[in-house]
Amino acid sequence: MLKFLCFAVKTQLNVHDLNNEAVAGNVTDIRIMEFLDEKGQRQEAPAVSGRMLKHWHCEAFRHLINHGAYKDVPLCDGCKVGEPIRPGEIRDGTLRQVAKSESDAVTSCAVCDVHGYLIARQAEGEQEAGTSARRTTRAMFSWLMPVLDKEAISRQVIHNRVSSDPGTMMPFSKAYASGFYGFISALDIDRIALIESKLGNSNPYAIEDGTGRKDRIKVAIEAYRYLISGHLGASLSHAVPHGNPIEVLVAYSESGPLPFPVSPMYPDYVPRTEGLMPAGTTLLYWGDGMPSKANVKNTIDDIFSELIGRVG
Ligand SMILES: [Zn+2]
Q: Which domain holds residue 189?
């Protein structure tokens, strides 16, 4: 049974607008991040925030439950419709955040369980008014960053909001970027459905393996397929990236937590990750590289098949 899982993904994404948070007037610009290369030289290039990656993992997770093979996995009213109101309930026709014990929140919603939540002020429920209740995420994401030895580019394009009245035509500019990118992510599987305050009890889990916990784990793993395909940011209505996955490195453990892998933004991340992981780690790899310790798979689906098989 899996306890901890890490992904290191390198992919080419052409003509995307996955993070267009920088808006000024009628110009929407893609976010540019500053960072250092391996020689310490300052660089800047388009990047996509880890918050965005986490959001899109959450979206894939939700869609797989609402429309896929995991319909029995429960979601609260907020997570069912993709509103970041966790835990959410419709009361009197209005969706609102509700105070619940962590056990109740985790039992009634897989997204609240895996992606966590923060109830800043509780007006009712088990905790006193004014206190906070939070559950930390089990899914962690880096930013999507350009690969250091490759060029990344972006370009402004003028669009026009079309109207039958020529006087109301409104030109606006958007930036689109292209490049090779990498991200890392970790899924703390052993802590899915775990209520940490109950550690030491005979059963600290809110739900059992046989009553839905394994399905939550499987759907959390399956959601990564969508991120690898480039389904991980904004402007998907008109700028789905031309994605071309290059390498996928997975590290998993059936005995305990793992460190994060070395980022695929660095050229030698595979041997350095192999050298970092503790004994008992299994490494899976898809791509053109020559890993020394990782089990090389023919397809990305082969990686997912092994991971899902290890959940049982
Ligand atoms: Zn929820």
A: 4-69+138-311
Find residue 11's DSSP bridge partners.
Answer: 181, 245
Residue 49 has pLDDT above 60, yes or no: yes
CA of 108 relative to ligand 1 center, distance in Å: 7
Rg (CA), the chain: 21
Q: How far is the CA of 79 from the centre of ligand 1 (A)?
A: 4
pLDDT of residue 131: 55
CA–CA dist 49, 233 (Å, integer): 9
Closest C-alpha to 187, from 116, 128, 133, 278: 116
* 10 Cα: distance to centroid of ligand 1 (angstroms): 30
Task: Give yes or no for residue 269 having a pLDDT over 70.
Answer: yes
pLDDT for position 13: 93
Burial class (CB in 10 A: 0-12, 13-18, 19+), 167: exposed
The whole model's pTM is what?
A: 0.91
Give the distance (Å) from ligand 1 centre to CA of residue 281: 32
pLDDT(40) > 90: yes
Distance 31 CA to ligand 1 centre (A): 29
Q: Is residue 78 part of a domain?
A: no
- Residue 76 Cα to ligand 1 midpoint, Å, equals 4
pLDDT of residue 176: 86
How many domains does the chain contain in total?
1
CA of 78 from ligand 1 middle (Å) equals 6
